[in-house]
Specification:
By secondary structure, the chain is mainly alpha-helical. It is built from 4 helices and 2 strands.
Amino acid sequence: MDSLASTLRSDRLQVDVLNVDLADECSIAALVEKSNEAERVLALETVPHGVRINLISPGPTESEMMRKLIADHPNMANLADGNLESFRPPIPDTHMGQPEQVAAAAAFLLSPDSSHISFHDLYLDGGETLGI
């Protein structure tokens, strides 16, 4: 990474290299902070030109991938209850998301109805991030 960063810097580009240890919470927090900073800069540079940058962050959503990830649950229906052993918080609205809900959120963000929404991260998680 350092070699690549040096090459890019020789072209007068600003480059930061951040080594992340996924077992270290502080290291992960630094990555998140740098990512947020980069997203803000990108948004500030593009929003005045009519480019809207928005994110969709789905929580547990019924999908084949989710089925593989929830081996510690007998079925998807009880995933909303949470599980202390696997560090899964409960989902306050008591159900898993559906792919159609994620698609509807994307359709809204792509529509003229959302034309005043820029640089927003839309959580579709039934309130799971509340950490109840």
